[in-house]
C-alpha cells in the first residue's frame, strides 16, 4: 500500500500538472467498490469546477475545488467549495495523461480537463476509494492522526505515553500518526536504534526524540527519491520511485546490515511483517 512518501509524491505531481485546470467531464466505471460517493453525484459535483490545488492528508490525496465555472482553465482565487478525495488503497494509481494515451485495465475514473489533459484513477484490486464533498454542506476532510512531518517533541511523546502495545504497532496506528506504514515504521525504528517489539510506553524521552527525528528524516528522504516502488506504486506520470534501493531493513531478511554486517531478521508484530537489525536495534 502506498505510504506517506508515495502519496506525497503523487499529490505534488498532480498539483504541478492540473492546478488551475477546469474539469470539463467526469467519467466513472461500473464497479461499485471504489466509490465512497455514488458516481453520478461525483460527476455532477466535479464537472465545471477548477482544481485550486492538490495536497496530501495522511494517506489521502485531496483535490481542493473552486465553484462551478463555465469559462477557460485559468486560475481561480478564493476558498475551496468542494473536495475530491482519493485513497489509493493497495494498488491505486492517480495519473495525469493525455486523452489518446492507452487506457489501462481497471481504470475507474477519468476526469477530462479544459487543458486537454486527463486525470485517471486506476486500481486493479479495487481497495481504493473516491469521494466528493460539497463544502457548503459537509465538513472538509481531515486526517485521523497527527502529521509525522511536523509534529513536535512534546506532542509526539504524548501519543505513546502509557501504551503497552509494541512501538511498531503504535507507529502503524493511523489514529496516532497519519500516513506511516510498514516500510517507514521499520526504517525509522532502525534509524532510531529501537527494537520493534519494545512497549511504546517504556521508551525513554531520548528514545522518543530519536524516533521522532528518525521518522521525519526517513520520510523526507523518501519523498526526495520519489517514494518506494516495491509493488505497484508509480508517481503521477507513471514513474517508479527509488527509495527502495536505500532500505536498510525492510524486506532485507538474512542480508547483512548496511551498518554493522549482522543479518537482518524478520518477525511478526501486530500481524505485520517486521524487519530489524539485532545489533543496531536494542
Describe the protein's architecture and organization.
It is elongated, with a radius of gyration of 20 Å. The strands form 3 sheets. Strands 1-6-7-5 form a 4-stranded antiparallel β-sheet, with helices on one face. Strands 2-3-4-8 form a 4-stranded antiparallel β-sheet. The chain has 282 residues and is α+β, with helices and mostly antiparallel strands. It folds into 2 domains: 4-134, MutM-like, N-terminal (N-terminal domain of MutM-like DNA repair proteins, Alpha-Beta Barrel); 153-276, Helicase, Ruva Protein, domain 3. Residues 72-76 have low confidence and may be disordered. The chain is built from 6 helices and 10 strands. Strand 6 (107-113) and strand 7 (118-122) form a beta hairpin. Helix 1 (4-18) packs across helix 6 (205-224) and helix 5 crosses helix 6 (205-224).
Write the layout of secondary structure elements.
Blueprint: H1 4-18, E1 23-28, H2 39-46, E2 49-57, E3 60-68, E4 82-87, E5 93-97, E6 107-113, E7 118-122, E8 129-134, H3 153-160, H4 167-172, H5 182-192, H6 205-224, E9 265-269, E10 272-276
Antiparallel strand pairs: 1-6, 2-3, 3-4, 4-8, 5-7, 6-7, 9-10
Helix pairs in contact: 1-6, 5-6
CATH topology of the largest domain: N-terminal domain of MutM-like DNA repair proteins
Number of domains: 2
Strand sequence of the main sheet, in spatial order?
Answer: 1-6-7-5
The secondary-structure element order is HEHEEEEEEEHHHHEE
